Amino acid sequence: LSPELSMMVDRILDFPRQDVEHAMVPRSRVVAIESDETIGALRERMASGHSRYPVMEEGRIVGVAHLVDVLELDDVDAPVTSIMRPALVIPELMPLPNALAA
What we know:
Keywords: CBS domain
Protein name: CBS domain-containing protein
Low-confidence stretches: none
Number of strands: 3
Mean pLDDT: 90
CATH superfamily: CBS-domain
Distance between the termini: 34 Å
Structural class: alpha+beta
Organism: Aeromicrobium phragmitis
Radius of gyration: 17 Å
Pfam family, one: CBS
């Protein structure tokens, strides 16, 4: 097997034994949007290539904005809270397959 394919197979086989913490992005690297920002501001931020953004209020996550919902709304002045979805809270030590099923 090529090194790339070998690594992919290893990751696939390890997946059921990994927990959520293994797949988490450090908070310092997370790109988020504030709850008082508009859909227009979020669209500009989404040009960076992500499809989901945590919506923050006073330093805590209050929801998640998804690209699909942003593209369906024409009102760029609407608050991002008008399209945000609930944020899932998943324990860090939950196995990845269980988290994906949540």
